[in-house]
Design the sequence.
């Protein structure tokens, strides 16, 4: 069931989205060579605590997961696409890092992700991240009343494929509201003009995931969470929570 939000609810979600934005900014600023992924998770926890927000990630256990998620951010490095569990790994020069974070504030959720490099960046990584961000911008631009879910999917997928990148099959965006994951699903590829029609009050997480090698295949680590590219190529993941409004898309997780 799709839950259409009131203007007041969207304003509350914007407050949660600001917490997410501040957490991601703090994590990105703290991400330096030698810093561990657990330390980055602690930075995000401090931001949530200061805002009196909780984490919809911590303890989350969907049907596929063998254990509840143990952190407040997903930290995916290099060939990890999404859902990386923060651990003692210390960042190295040239690493490509994707951080996904959520916040629940006064009963409403926000969800967003960023990708960035640490130390000396590889030009190929910068192109990958720039394309992911362009795909996200295209998806957001298509999130207007009267369009359909397929128009967002087509906008995202077209940018990714034109650049020669792969898209992990079966993973994409979703509705957001009282829960972090609500209906409808928002694929990262598909034909335009298909799927549910967009209307004001819908709130969606749009989240391109790109595989540099061009293939779509992935494998799951033994932890049951981390998805990796099968060819060892790098991946990028970016995301915003976006409200559909009569005046156009409203990004709820931007600073």
Sequence:
């Amino acid at each position: 069931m799709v839950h259409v939000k009131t203007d007041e609810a969207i304003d509350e979600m914007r407050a949660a989205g600001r917490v997410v934005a501040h957490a991601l900014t703090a994590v990105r600023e703290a991400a330096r060579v030698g810093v561990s992924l657990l330390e980055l998770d602690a930075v995000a926890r401090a931001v949530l605590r200061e805002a009196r927000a909780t984490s919809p990630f911590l303890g989350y256990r969907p049907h596929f997961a063998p254990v509840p998620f143990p952190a407040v951010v997903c930290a995916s490095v290099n060939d990890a696409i999404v859902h990386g569990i923060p651990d003692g790994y210390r960042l190295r020069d040239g690493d490509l890092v994707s951080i996904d974070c959520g916040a629940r504030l006064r009963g409403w959720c926000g969800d967003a992700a960023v990708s960035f490099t640490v130390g000396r960046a590889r030009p190929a990584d910068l192109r990958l991240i720039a394309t992911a961000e362009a795909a996200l911008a295209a998806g957001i631009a298509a999130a207007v009343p009267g369009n359909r879910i397929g128009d967002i999917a087509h906008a995202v997928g077209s940018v990714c494929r034109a650049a020669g990148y792969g898209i992990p099959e079966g993973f994409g965006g979703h509705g957001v509201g009282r829960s972090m994951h609500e209906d409808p699903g928002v694929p990262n590829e598909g034909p335009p003009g298909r799927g549910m029609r967009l209307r004001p009050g819908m709130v969606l997480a749009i989240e391109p995931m790109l595989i540099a090698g061009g293939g779509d295949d992935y494998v799951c680590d033994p932890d049951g969470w981390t998805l990796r590219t099968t060819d060892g190529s790098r991946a990028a993941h970016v995301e915003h929570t976006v409200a559909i409004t009569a005046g156009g898309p409203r990004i709820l997780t931007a600073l």
